[in-house]
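User: Could you check the structure of this?
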Amino acid sequence: MKKLYDKKNREILPYDLLKIFHFIGPKHKKYYMYKLVEVKQNSLWGSHLSQCGGGYWLHTEADKNGVIQTVEIVQRGGPFLYSKGDII
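Assistant: Sure, the predicted structure tokens are below.
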């Protein structure tokens, strides 16, 4: 499986908390989403911070080196640890 990296060239690991660019609003203010992620099939699988389990594919594009320029790791291992789908 190909490794993926954030814009600061740090490897994205399971349950990292990522800051992902979302859109530019009025007065050119940038808005971001925060997602817990896993790397599946060379893509990012994300979930909301308030949900355990479930999730969806995050539409991001990596360059040939696996770097995703619109993503930044803000916390390693996520704010939760998962065990059989439950928050512990």
